[in-house]
């Protein structure tokens, strides 16, 4: 009989809904919501995901900034390259390319020399039909002229380098003591876009040339100033 009563008491005790703690029995132990700053302590998985998303956001921002910076550098490099390409201006021509010696002049009046053999015409500024070089852009140019003639009837080679029909330098060699005459001139001048350069053979003078290219006209842009 005593055993039955003990079992009933134990059943009644363990069947209650009350919670127990080290401080004794109580009705309930309230569960507090985790503080926002303690999320990483209470939920490691959620915290790791949040930190990863923030890091991805930072990397994405840095990536976009880097791409934009590279695009700006690319545009700047393209502009510099185009400017360099636009600055390339050079020509070098000779009177002819004949295997036999050909005489040019003398004429009854001054005449622009039409150099027919082209070594280089970078930028297409020189016109073989007119003998005129048109300056493509403002800048300092190096210009050189070499002339030659051999004895025939007269031994007098004389030309003038002109810009817009104005004399820049005379190239003259007259001598009756030998069978050949040759001379050169080199100048550096400031020119503007659209200026027209030419070499004019003076009245009564003559030149002679063949495949050896004794008579040349050369010019190139040293640096742009626009």
Architecture overview:
By secondary structure, the protein is of the alpha+beta class. It contains 3 helices and 15 strands. It has helices at residues 2-14, 39-42, 44-87; strands spanning 19-21, 24-26, 90-94, 102-104, 111-112, 117-122, 126-127, 132-134, 139-150, 156-163, 166-174, 180-191, 196-201, 207-209, 216-224. Strands 5, 7, 8, 10, 11 and 13 form a 6-stranded antiparallel β-sheet that branches. The radius of gyration is 47 Å and the shape is rod-shaped. The relative contact order is 0.17. Mean pLDDT is 81; it is low at 3-14 and 16-29.
Topology overview:
Blueprint: H1 2-14, E1 19-21, E2 24-26, H2 39-42, H3 44-87, E3 90-94, E4 102-104, E5 111-112, E6 117-122, E7 126-127, E8 132-134, E9 139-150, E10 156-163, E11 166-174, E12 180-191, E13 196-201, E14 207-209, E15 216-224
